[in-house]
Amino acid sequence: MMRLLSMFLVAVFTVSLAGSAWAADVAKKKEGGGKKGESKKVSLEDRFAKMDKNGDKKLDSDEFMGRTTSEEAKKAKEKQFAEMDKDKDKFVTIEEMKEFHKNKAKEKKPHGEKKEVKAPTKE
Fold it and tell me: How far apart are CA 55 and CA 95, in angstroms?
């Protein structure tokens, strides 16, 4: 009887330990952690809302830049901001940002599409 009780307690302990590890893994994935290489999908609306510090539903240049520090990154963001700001009012709306990303996605070639390679010609 004692042996049966010991086996039962070991089984309960093992199950609770496995359950704790599983719960921690689920929590980590919800927080954006998880395995290396996995990325948390964040919607464009969520990113826009996080950048829009004053909540006016439009981004000025400072909000768009965020905490960018390197000169190279600042120049790239300034260029991107100018491309997004279609009406040139010095603000980017969510609609302008969506349109920009939609156009950028169209420019990219789909995966698996091969580039045309020309055979060398004999002269």
Answer: 15
> Per-residue DSSP letters for 3-39?
HHHHHHHHHHHHHHHHHHHHHHHHHHHHTT-SSTT--
Residue boundaries of the structural domains of the chain: 44-107
Please name which of 80, 56, 83 lies closest in space to residue 68, comparing C-alpha atoms.
80
Q: pTM of the predicted model, to two decimals?
A: 0.56
If you average pLDDT over every residue of the chain, what do you get? 81
Encoded tokens for 49: 């809302």
- In the chain, the amino acid numbered 110 is P
Of 21-35, 40-54, 96-110, the poorest mean pLDDT is in 21-35
User: What residues does 58 pair with on adjacent strands?
Assistant: 93
CATH of 44-107, one of 1.10.238.10, 3.20.20.70, 1.10.357.30, 3.65.10.10: 1.10.238.10
Residue with tokens 């279609």: 86
Residue 1: per-residue pLDDT: 82
Q: Return the closest-CA partner of residue 61 out of 69, 51, 47, 72.
A: 51
